[in-house]
């Protein structure tokens, strides 16, 4: 699967990755005023990342991180509604394997914030902020998510996720 987000061209091999883009979901298209994180990716059936991609981050990160946490929460809610059959959507956009209990109970779910133009030496400050941010602590407690991670475009290239 190929798609572009915040100026980065993502490319995922269908054999090693499962992807869900909420913005392509018919139920999401019918909503107004609801914002979602950019995508969910399952890596080799072992890790699940809830991904938000930004081009940059402000120096004052509190409101910025709260907005991202809200997008993650909304994405989890829509995903859950679809996989539980609570929405009219057929769930065609959601990988079939994700509708099974083994996927839903996978313990290795975490938020991944990608800030395209963030310099390497700025990442630790953002990582520290997201780790202690109350909204991300709440996400961890509510959904059992692992500690969130912040990376830049340079790091994402090492994942092999970009063209």
Description:
The structure is a single chain. With 163 residues, the chain is of the alpha/beta class. β4 and β5 (47-54) form a beta hairpin. It has helices spanning 26-30, 62-83, 101-104, 120-132, 134-143, 153-159; strands at residues 2-5, 8-11, 17-20, 39-43, 47-54, 109-115, 146-151. The protein is globular and about 45 Å long. It starts with a strand and ends with a helix. The chain is built from six helices and seven strands. The strands form two sheets. Strands 3-4-5-6-7 form a five-stranded mixed β-sheet.
- The H-and-E topology, N to C, reads as EEEHEEHHEHHEH
Distance between the termini: 11 Å
Secondary-structure class? alpha/beta
Classify the beta-strand content into a percent band. 15-25%
**Helix content range of the residues, please?**
25-40%
Our Rg estimate from Cα atoms comes to 15 Å
Oligomer type: single chain
- What's the mean pLDDT score? 89
Q: How many strands, which pairing sense, and closed or not: the largest β-sheet?
A: 5 strands, mixed
């Amino acid at each position: 699967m190929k798609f572009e987000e915040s100026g980065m061209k993502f490319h995922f091999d269908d054999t090693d990755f499962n992807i869900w883009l909420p913005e392509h979901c018919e139920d999401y298209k019918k909503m107004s005023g609801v914002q979602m994180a950019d995508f969910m990716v399952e890596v080799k059936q072992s890790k699940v990342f809830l991904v938000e991609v930004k081009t940059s981050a402000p120096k004052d990160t509190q409101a910025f991180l709260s907005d991202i946490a809200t997008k993650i929460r909304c994405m989890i809610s829509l995903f859950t509604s679809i996989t539980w059959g609570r929405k009219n959507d057929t769930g065609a956009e959601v990988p079939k394997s994700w509708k099974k209990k083994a996927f839903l109970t996978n313990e290795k779910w975490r938020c991944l914030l990608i800030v395209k133009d963030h310099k390497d030496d700025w990442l630790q400050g953002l990582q520290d902020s997201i780790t202690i941010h109350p909204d991300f602590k709440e996400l961890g407690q509510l959904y059992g998510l692992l500690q969130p991670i912040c990376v830049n475009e340079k790091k994402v290239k090492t994942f092999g996720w970009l063209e």
